[in-house]
Amino acid sequence: MKRGLFQDRRILSLIGVHLYILVHFLLWYVFGVKIWGKTAMMGVPSLMAGHLNIAAIMVIVIIFSVLLYGRAFCGWACHLRGAIEFSDWVMRKLKISGYQKIRENNILFNTSFRWVFRGIVFLILLLPVIAYWIRREYDFYFNLQSPTPLTDLPGNNNLLFATNAPINMQLATNGLTMLDIIIPFTAGIFIIFVMTFVFNYFYGQGAFCRIMCPYAVLLTPFMNLSPRQKKITRISNCTGCRACSKNCPQGIDVSREIYHYNGKVINRECIKCHYCIDACSYQTLADSGQKASSQTKPISMYEKTPWLNSRRHLQVVEPLPPVYDVISIIVAIVCGTITSRLGGFWFYVGAIVGFIVFRKLMSFCLSEDDKSSLNENQLKTDKTKRRRQKEPEEVLNV
Ligand code: SF4
Ligand code: SF4
Ligand code: SF4
Fold first, then answer.
1. SS3 for 221?
2. Relative to the alpha carbon of 272, which ligand is closest?
3. Concatenated DSSP letters of 285-316
4. DSSP notation for 94-119
5. Residues 10 and 104 in one domain
6. Between the N and C ends of the chain, which has fewer C-beta atoms within 10 Å?
7. 276, 278, 280, 315, best to mutate for ligand 3 pocket (most atoms within 8 Å of CB)
8. Shared domain check, 357 and 276
């Protein structure tokens, strides 16, 4: 993937977010300066429960930012995105076999039911609040102070796992020792490792964002609402070389989008990472709220109805029959629910491991003949859709 000016700025921004988190932790736990609590997406449950604290305010700001800048929060300020890209960088530097191959070709595995998956994970995140609503135990208040920075993380309340976890380990029983810091820190790193390194390794870069992140469900409805929203925009003639599409970590067919949607990328998966802008050697793209420039030169024509074509998202759906695809999500949810007994973030560990293991097992059980017939069926579906569109790829003289 090409690294340009935007990437340097973006990496600085993501490093800044992690520095903020570090300073916040040090101030709270080392110097006892407790300005506010956890400023993170746990503001979503706070907001839904009627608690207007600093985390909830942060979520409101993020939602408003989507109206103006799209999901720029994802690409520029999400600490998890930073960890995901860091793991990608480490695995590329280490030339990890297997990962290098899918990374060089930007192969992005996914499931056809990704929105269902993310939707269920979002509901699970909100379960405690939904229980509140059902019991009608509303508790509206305004207080900037939100829960402690370690909420949901190993080490909270001097316990390795959540207070009501079936197994646990008491920390700092005789004053704080190095081990009391190292043990929960290692557990936290392990969780992040599964969400980033493991998921990236098996499903391609940014797998967590593309497949499981519940916050995509929260942010995407606010995309494309405001006419002033900045979007990836065509600012000069496009050659149709498709370098932008091949470099998008979210698997968006950028060149097709700007062709069909008045020079704009309107795909809700766009996280404003600007890799497409950097990849374009013709300086055709910019992140802009202005009208796109017209395409005046001939270009290879794309299908008129890209939403009917699975290749609009350049993501590879594993050759699994739909029923296994759905079952893999159920397995992931069940495994995640079991591990979530250890504490909030442990949900992701169980869900990711369950998802990967089940799908690998099913893939392994399918014979090569089954797989090639599934692939053929996929190709046939694509061809039928194209025939229906009566729109062969051809050269258009505009
Ligand atoms: S999709 Fe989720 S994990 Fe990925 S950048 Fe956005 S909020 Fe962060
Ligand atoms: S926007 Fe740039 S990179 Fe993308 S197809 Fe057009 S010329 Fe190529
Ligand atoms: S369309 Fe461009 S900015 Fe959006 S996710 Fe893809 S590469 Fe990043």
1. helix
2. 3
3. EEEESSPPPP--S-EE---S-GGG-GGGB--E
4. TT-TTHHHHHHTT--EE-TTHHHHHH
5. yes
6. C
7. 276
8. no
Cα–ligand 2 centroid distance for 309 (angstroms): 20
- Provide the pLDDT for residue 41: 82
pLDDT of res. 64: 96
Partnered with residue 288 across adjacent β-strands are: 231
CA dist 257 and 253 (Å) reads: 6
Quick: pLDDT tens for 234-250.
Answer: 999 999 999 999 999 99
From 215, 268, 273, the mutation candidate for ligand 1 (largest count of ligand atoms within 8 A of CB) is: 215
Low-confidence ranges of the chain (pLDDT < 70): 1-4, 307-312, 369-398
Q: Counting atoms of ligand 2 from 1, which one is nearest the CA of 254? A: 4
Cα–Cα distance measured from residue 195 to residue 173, given in angstroms and rounded to the nearest whole number: 31
pLDDT value of residue 79: 95
User: What is the pTM (predicted TM-score) of this model?
Assistant: 0.90
pLDDT at 380: 58
Residue 19 located in a structural domain: yes
> Separation of 293 CA from ligand 3 center, angstroms?
19
Same-domain check for residues 138 and 187: yes
Residue 124 one-letter amino acid: I
Asked whether 285 lines ligand 2 (CB < 6 A), one says yes
The count of structural domains within the chain is: 3
Long-range contacts, stretch 223-226, CB < 8 angstroms, 24+ apart: 223/66, 223/70, 223/71, 223/266, 223/268, 223/270, 224/266, 224/268, 225/67, 226/67, 226/68
Tokens representing 214 are: 């519940």
State whether 258 and 283 are in the same domain: yes
Q: Ligand 1: which of 61, 118, 213, 218 to mutate, most ligand atoms within 8 Å of CB?
A: 213
Within 8 A by CB and 6+ apart from 254, the residues are 232, 244, 245, 248, 265, 276, 285
| Domain that includes residue 150, residue range | 5-167+182-220
Residue 386 structure tokens = 């194209």
Token pair for residue 282? Answer: 């013709």
What pLDDT is attached to residue 212? Answer: 96
Helix (H, G, I), strand (E, B) or coil at 159: strand
Q: What is the pLDDT of residue 365?
A: 87
Report CA-CA distances (Å) from 333 to 42, 123, 299, 307, 338.
Answer: 20, 11, 45, 28, 9
Q: What is the pLDDT of residue 398?
A: 32
